[in-house]
């Protein structure tokens, strides 16, 4: 059992080194110019070790996406839409804390259009969570609920993606307040000002 834990810890460390090497390279090189050899060299491993973890660069990217999405899964699973009230401010503050950990990663991914793919996966997860919580006795209610869930999820993630790509002078805290306000009050909060 101790050997298994040691191997798991070593594998996790190597995987983190591969991810770190990829992001280090992404900071200085265009995404489509990064090769397996580049990542292996940057991570201090050989190509064979890279291939023990990933078949190619696309699979590496998918693994990175999964790691980033998994960080948000507990927060997203805590959303309780069945109560009819969501504390948007608290949600965005928690989201803010998670985003702060990897903001430079998101900005690097945004430059190459990769962030949109991650956000689409998160949107699907949010919609799935909402639909599982709300009992829909009729097909019409199921369809309506899906549209509401997609609208809410895509709107929130769209403004987040936009802010990551170009913060427009807003700090993460200012963006969090704005996103909570938009989520709670919609466009009416802006029109009333």
Structure explained in plain terms:
Helices cover 77% and strands 0% of the residues. The longest helix is centred in the last third of the chain and has 27 residues, at 139-165. Helix 1 packs across helix 2 (36-43). The protein is globular, with a radius of gyration of 20 Å. The protein has 193 residues and is an all-alpha fold. The chain folds into two domains: 1-54, Arc Repressor Mutant, subunit A (Orthogonal Bundle), CATH 1.10.10; 64-191. The chain contains ten helices and no strands. The mean pLDDT is 83.
Give, in order, the helices and strands.
HHHHHHHHHH
The helix tally amounts to: 10
Strand residue content: under 5%
In round numbers, the mean pLDDT is 83
Radius of gyration, in Å, reads 20 Å
| Sheet with most strands | none
End-to-end Cα distance: 62 Å
Unreliable stretches: none
Helical content (DSSP H or I, runs of 4+): over 70%
Number of extended strands = 0
């Amino acid at each position: 059992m101790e050997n298994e834990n040691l191997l798991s810890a070593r594998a996790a460390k190597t995987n983190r080194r591969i991810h770190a090497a990829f992001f280090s390279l992404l900071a200085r090189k265009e995404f489509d110019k990064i090769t397996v050899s580049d990542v292996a060299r940057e991570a201090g491993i050989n190509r064979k070790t890279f291939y023990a973890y990933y078949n190619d660069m696309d699979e590496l990217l998918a693994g990175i996406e999964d790691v980033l999405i998994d960080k948000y899964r507990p927060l997203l699973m805590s959303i309780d839409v069945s109560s009819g009230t969501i504390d948007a401010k608290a949600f965005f503050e928690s989201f803010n804390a998670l985003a702060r950990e990897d903001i430079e990663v998101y900005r690097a991914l945004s430059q190459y259009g990769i962030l949109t793919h991650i956000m689409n996966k998160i949107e699907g997860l949010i919609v799935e969570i909402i639909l599982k919580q709300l009992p829909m006795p009729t097909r019409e209610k199921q369809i309506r609920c899906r549209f509401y869930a997609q609208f809410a999820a895509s709107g929130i993630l769209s403004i987040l993606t936009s802010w990551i790509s170009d913060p427009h002078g807003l700090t993460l805290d200012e963006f969090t307040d704005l996103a909570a306000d938009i989520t709670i009050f919609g466009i009416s909060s802006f029109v009333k000002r």
